[in-house]
């Protein structure tokens, strides 16, 4: 994964006609570190990658590949890919190789501890959500109520009522989440028909 991130950084940097020294000045990261990163010889912390993404004018998720649609109905743990990363809040991993023709959207989510100055706002959207807590304690908001969820606890809601979560502990919370509608299935259905 890190060699792929490094090559994307290199491509973007060259497209923007930046030298390693100029990128170093924009990110406060050493030229040597950036050089090693571009060649896939070192790992990068999320905060540093966020600095690089801002300097190169892309969202941090640009560096993470969406899971590729495969024909297999089985996904091995080593095949799991990051689908979304929010450096301050959570990481999502796909749990399916074939989402295009499915109604449910399953994912593994890791929720990071909330920062002191963060405000959690509830939101609504179409569909349903099922959440199962695997590890840690999650604070869950639903329709004006606040609940603490522990490993083994689950929630199954209509997403049309206000909801959200936060991690008020100092450890990562891991949860299984399955929701509808599946935005990958919708995007295929909503694709414009080709003119013949």
Automatic annotation (TrEMBL):
Q: Name one GO molecular function term.
A: DNA binding
Q: Does the keyword DNA-binding apply?
A: yes
Superkingdom of this entry's organism? Bacteria
What InterPro entries does the entry give?
Cro/C1-type_HTH, Cupin_2, Lambda_DNA-bd_dom_sf, RmlC-like_jellyroll, RmlC_Cupin_sf, TransReg_Diox_bact_type
Cellular-component GO terms for this entry: cytosol
HTH cro/C1-type domain segment(s): 9-63
Segments passing through the bilayer: none
Alphabetized, the UniProt keywords read:
DNA-binding
Which PANTHER family does the entry mention? HTH-TYPE TRANSCRIPTIONAL REGULATOR (PTHR46797), TRANSCRIPTIONAL REGULATOR (PTHR46797:SF25)
Q: What is the official name of this protein in its record?
A: DNA-binding protein
Species per Swiss-Prot/TrEMBL record = Ruminiclostridium cellobioparum subsp. termitidis CT1112
Give the lineage.
Answer: Bacteria, Bacillati, Bacillota, Clostridia, Eubacteriales
